[in-house]
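Quick one: examine the sequence and fold tokens given here and explain what the tokens say about the fold. Here goes:
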Amino acid sequence: MSSAQRPKRPARPATGQPAHDLSPTTSHRWVTHATHCDVTHKVRFRDELAAKQALVGAAYARSLAEAADHDCRRHERRAYPCNACGGWHLTSRADWA
């Protein structure tokens, strides 16, 4: 397909904001097909990388909320493996204590 045939991307709004909404209130929409652990009922991530990517998303949501002077419910601090389901979960606890 030549560049003349490709559809154009939507223009950014005049406010300078991205065309998509990344506000903390919509961050839960990033996880489309989340599975949950049958024991802990927490969101189950398939591997450590997926869990750490979710931590980055949580940190980003916190930074957006802080910049907008809003509260954020995303307090996850680290990922850990689950012995019950074999997946990974997030926790707000900074250490294993």
In short: The first helix runs from residue 48 to 67. The helical segments are 48-67. Residues 48 and 88 are 6 Å apart (CA to CA). The first strand starts at residue 35 and ends at 36.
